[in-house]
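User: Can you recover a sequence for this backbone? Please restate the input before giving your answer.

Assistant: Of course. Working from this structure:
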C-alpha cells in the first residue's frame, strides 16, 4: 500500500473492522479512563497505547465478545503502572533529595556559541575540534577527511570571523 509517497505494509485482514471499532469506541474509552484517572492527558496516553496493543493483536482481540472492555482493561493497567512508577520516583526523590542545581551558562559561552553559529559549518567544525576538543591540526584533518592545509585555512578564516564577531570594545575614557 502506498500513501503520499510512503510505502506502508499491507493492512491485515480485519483492518476495516479495527478502524470502525476504534472510531466507535475511542472517545467513550477516553472519557471512562479520564473519570478513572482524573487526568485527561494521562487518559489519552494510556488509551492510545491500549489501542496500539489491540491493533497488534487484532486477529485475536477482534474475536472477543467485548474488545472495548479489553482495551479499557489494558488502559487501566497502564495507568496503574504509570502511577506506581511515579509514586516510586517520588519516594526516591524524597529519600535522596532533588538533584543539585546546575549552574547557568556563562555569558561568554553563550556569545561564543552564537558566534560559532554564524560562521561556515566547515570553519565551525575545525575551530571546535581544534580549540575546544583539543585535537591537533593533523587529527582534525583526519577526522574531517581533508588535507592539513585545508584545516589550517579553515582555522585561520574561522578565527578571523570569530574575532570580528566577538571583539571587546574598550570602555571610553572621558
Amino acid at each position: 500500500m502506498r500513501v503520499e509517497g510512503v510505502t506502508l505494509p499491507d493492512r491485515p485482514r480485519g483492518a476495516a473492522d479495527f478502524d470502525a471499532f476504534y472510531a466507535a469506541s475511542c472517545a467513550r474509552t477516553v472519557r471512562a479512563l479520564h473519570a478513572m484517572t482524573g487526568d485527561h492527558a494521562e487518559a489519552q496516553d494510556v488509551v492510545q497505547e491500549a489501542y496500539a496493543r489491540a491493533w497488534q493483536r487484532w486477529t485475536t482481540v477482534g474475536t472477543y465478545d467485548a474488545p472495548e472492555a479489553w482495551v479499557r482493561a489494558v488502559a487501566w493497567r497502564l495507568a496503574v503502572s504509570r502511577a506506581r512508577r511515579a509514586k516510586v520516583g517520588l519516594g526516591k526523590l524524597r529519600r535522596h533529595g532533588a538533584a543539585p542545581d546546575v549552574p547557568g551558562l556563562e555569558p561568554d559561552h553563550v556569545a561564543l556559541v552564537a558566534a560559532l553559529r554564524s560562521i561556515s559549518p566547515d570553519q565551525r567544525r575545525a575551530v571546535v575540534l581544534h580549540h575546544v576538543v583539543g585535537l591537533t591540526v593533523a587529527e582534525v584533518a583526519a577526522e574531517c577527511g581533508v588535507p592539513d592545509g585545508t584545516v589550517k585555512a579553515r582555522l585561520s578564516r574561522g578565527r578571523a570571523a570569530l574575532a570580528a564577531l566577538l571583539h571587546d570594545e574598550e570602555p571610553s575614557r572621558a
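That completes the design. The domain at 107-166 is CATH 1.10.10.10 (Arc Repressor Mutant, subunit A).
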